[in-house]
Amino acid sequence: MVKKEVYILSGFLGSGKTTLLKHVLQALKEENKKPAVLMNELGSVSIDSDAVEADTSMRELLDGCICCTISDKLEAQLQDLLVNEQFDVLIIETTGAAHPVEVVDSILSPLFADRFEFKGIITVVDGRQWKERSQFSPSVLHLMREQIRHAQYIIANKVDLLTEMEQGTFIYELQQINNRAKVYLTNYAKVSMKDIFSEAAEIKIEGYEKASIGRHLSLQAVVYTFKGEVDGEEFEEWVRKQPETIYRMKGYIPLKGKKYPAMFQYSYGMPLFMQADMKYKTNFVIIGEELSKSDILQSLQAIDHY
To answer: Residue limits of the CobW C-terminal domain (predicted)?
Structure first.
C-alpha cells in the first residue's frame, strides 16, 4: 500500500501560511499529484477555506487547536479522508497557536499511522513580525521559536519590508535557532515548491544513511508495525535505552500472554500502559529529533517475536 505523504504548514498568525498553501496546491497539481487539505482554525468560522479550489478534497477543524482541544475530531477527519477521498499528498495548515510536536503527535494515530508518511514541517516566519517580536509575550515568543526549531523548511517571508542588513540579521537569527533547516527568503511566500518536493524525495530515497553523516531531519516520525508478540520486560528495557531526543511514543503493543494489545504512551520521559479491550492495529509511533530510523527499526524487530 502506497503511503500518503503529509506536510504540515506552520507559522504564527498572519505570517503567510494560507498564501503558501495556494502555492503548494498549485505545485502539486503541476506534478500530477492529487492533494487533500486539512485546515485548522481557532474560531468557529473558516476564514481561509476559499483558498482551496473546489476540485481539492478539504476538511476543516474549527473552534480549537489541532493539538489540544480537538485532537479527537482530527482523528475522525483523517479517517474520513482515507476512506472517502482519493489523494496522494495531505497538506495540513495549522493555527498559528499550534506547537509542531503536538501536531505531528495528533496526526500519527496508531490506528492509521502506517497509511501516512510524514515528510516535514514548512514554517513561515513574517520578517517584520520577527523584527518586532519584543512586543510579544514570553509564551508567544517560545511558540514562535519552537515552530522555527522543528521545521525542515523555513519560509522567511515579507522580506521586502526589511532593509538588506535586516534581512541578513533575519537569516542569521533563524539559523541560530535551527541550523538544519533550509531557509528561503520570500515575498508573498513565493518559493520553488519543486525544490522542496525534490529534497523531501531525496531524503526518502537515501534514507537515514544521509542523516548519519550530519543531515538529520529536525523532527522525525518512525512507524513500526509489530507482527508477533513482545515480552513485557524486554519492551520496558527497550524503552529505557532510548535517547532523550524522543519526545513521544505511542501505539498498541501485543504483549505475550495478553488477549488484546496494550495501549502504550510515552511523553516527556513518562511511560504509561493501558490494557485495551479489543484487537487494534499493532502500529507503534515514535516522534523525536536526531533519530536513526534504521537503528530503531532493527531494535524493535529484535524484540518482535514471530
So the answer is: 219-304
As a whole number of angstroms, the distance between CA 123 and CA 108 comes to 19
Distance (Å, rounded) from C-alpha 11 to C-alpha 216? Answer: 21
3-state secondary structure of 131: helix
- Fill in the DSSP letter of residue 2: P
Render pLDDT for 201-211 as a digit per residue (tens, 0 to 9). 655 433 333 33
What is the four-CA torsion angle of 107, 108, 110, 112, rounded to 10 degrees? 80
CB-based contact 289:218 (threshold 8 Å)? yes
Q: Report the distance separating Cα 135 and Cα 122, nearest Å.
A: 24
3-state secondary structure of 33: coil
Are residues 273 and 212 in contact, defined by beta-carbon separation less than 8 angstroms? no
pLDDT tens-digit series, residues 38-82: 887 644 444 444 557 767 888 777 555 555 555 667 788 888 899
